[in-house]
Design goal:
This protein is an alpha+beta fold. The chain contains 13 helices and 21 strands. It is globular.
Length: about 500
């Protein structure tokens, strides 16, 4: 039995997949969790709360704004101006420093107030089924896999998938729409935006009528409300804080984003050519190609080739050559990783999702590469591919798996890829061939950079499954380096990972 990445969604698991599969991926049942398992998951996932990027140390925050590297350079310039007898210039520099610090400090405080306002949408208590008993618990103790009861007048405590019953939901917290919408366990549509899914309800929204049971698939900062809170605290430079996200040292000229393969797919371009119709056409071709890949390979679409193969409706000899190409790549990935990555599912079946995302993004990136002089960054649900003919790098940030609002490391790239694998955001979606069950490791995530996104994604998956032996996995190919993050927050980088505070991996 071998490891495989069962889903390409950025959530703990795809909340729109068939209910039995969702229960399996969340390792729960329609009767809910035991109290003991709920406590164990609470320690692993953390409380169901919205967290601030920083604490309430006003003095410390103000001091940081006055002493960051650029401010120190300006202070030095002011001193030199004063010594040189240009007191007016020195005073002007000091005023600039103070104004910049004041504005940045105000932005920090505004972000904190925004998170506090969002947190006010969360209820204090929730009704949950544990040990087969329906009981009221503190909403902050909810964990993925809990089965909750939703009734008229309740505020939803976490992102949930309805498994029985129907309710009317006021989604205005997230969408601004004042008209309540129907959500039912029978409305199982796997297409379109998550917020429009007929069987999903989200943290912070209100139940205005009906009653239902639902399974929790995301809590805290991993909910849709949490994502809004994280964005409200994003770094003022414009850098994203998602796993494997991007930022830049110069102003982005243009950006595009679409929801494809259950993921946010975004393109950030810069340079004069970014405004051209040629760049726009290339990006549209990227999106169109990824949509076609999703149509062929999605295990959640009834008429996809992967689904038809699973039902025995089509033979391998009759499938598109592209599918056979991916199958061959999956075999080579298995051989490369010594079996730590494999598209063959435990118990039978074939799901190439763990390879397809990186392969498809890299393939689609050729459309952008064909635009001369265009700097671009393609972000496929947190796995990133960049190319910068200008030589001005993009900075790829590695998310703190314990707190989606924080970046714990970064790496500047002018060309290449960065991929991250772990369970903090997506739950136990990786299988270990050595145990026949979900990967058990003390590592929260492993990020890999190298020339190819397809290969980096495969190696990140295999490295995470390998546990403490993950650095050895990256020895399979030259040019790939990794960063592992432990549950205590310590960082361990391979020899070639940039020395930015991380420790060399053992």
């Amino acid at each position: 039995m071998t490891a495989t990445e069962l889903s390409t969604t950025g959530l703990a698991s795809d909340p729109r997949e068939p209910a039995d599969r969702l229960f399996r991926d969340l390792r729960t049942t329609p009767d809910g969790l035991t109290e003991r398992e709920a406590q164990r998951r609470l320690e692993a996932y953390g409380r169901n709360e919205l967290t601030r990027r920083r604490g309430s140390d006003w003095v410390g925050e103000l001091v940081r704004q006055l002493t960051h590297p650029l401010a120190l350079l300006l202070w030095l310039a002011a001193v030199l101006a004063a010594i040189g007898g240009t007191g007016v210039l020195a005073a002007a520099i000091v005023v600039v420093i103070l104004l910049n610090a004041g504005l940045a400090f105000a932005q920090e405080r505004q972000a904190e107030r925004a998170v506090e306002a969002l947190a006010a949408y969360l209820p204090v208590q929730a009704t949950v089924v544990r040990d087969g008993i329906t009981q009221a618990v503190e909403a902050r103790t909810l964990v993925p896999g809990d089965v909750v009861v939703i009734a008229e007048g309740n505020r939803i405590s976490a992102d949930v998938r309805l498994v029985a019953g129907a309710v009317e939901i006021d989604n205005s917290t997230l969408t601004g729409e004042s008209v309540p919408v129907i959500r039912s366990a029978d409305l199982t549509d796997v297409s379109g935006n998550l917020l429009d899914a007929g069987d999903l309800a989200f943290s912070g929204t209100n139940c205005t009528a009906g009653e239902a049971r639902a399974v929790v698939f995301a809590t805290g900062m991993h909910t849709e409300l949490g994502r809004i809170a994280a964005m409200s605290q994003a770094a003022p430079s414009g850098c994203s804080v998602r796993p494997g996200s991007y930022g830049c040292g110069m102003t982005a000229k243009r950006s595009w984003v679409e929801q494809i393969m259950g993921l946010p797919i975004s393109v950030l371009a810069r340079g004069d050519v970014a405004q051209s119709s040629r760049a726009d056409a290339a990006v549209r071709e990227v999106f169109a190609e990824l949509i076609e890949v999703d149509r062929v390979f999605s295990p959640y679409k009834h008429d996809s080739v992967v689904s038809r193969l699973a039902r025995g409706e089509v033979d391998w000899d009759a499938v598109d050559p592209m599918v056979r190409d991916v199958a061959g790549r999956c075999v080579r990935a298995r051989d490369l990783t010594g079996g730590l990555f494999d598209a063959e599912l435990p118990g039978g079946g074939w799901d190439p999702s763990g390879l397809v995302k990186g392969w498809a993004a890299e393939r689609a990136g050729e459309r952008l590469r064909a635009v001369p002089g265009l700097d671009w960054c393609l972000n496929a649900g947190g796995d990133v591919l960049v190319r910068c003919p200008s030589g001005e790098s993009f900075t790829v940030g590695i998310q703190d798996p314990r707190d989606p609002g924080q970046v714990v490391a970064s790496i500047a790239r002018t060309e290449g890829a960065v991929a991250t694998s772990g369970t903090a955001a997506r739950g136990a979606h990786l299988y270990d061939p050595r145990t026949g069950g979900p990967a058990a490791t003390r590592w929260l995530s492993v990020s890999v950079y190298g020339p190819s996104l397809e290969t980096a994604d495969v190696l990140a998956t295999a490295a995470f499954v390998a546990g403490d032996d993950w650095p050895a996995v990256l020895d399979a190919l030259p040019g790939y380096e990794g960063l592992g993050i432990l549950a205590d927050g310590n960082l361990f980088g391979t020899d070639g990972w940039p020395r930015d505070g991380s420790t060399v991996a053992p």
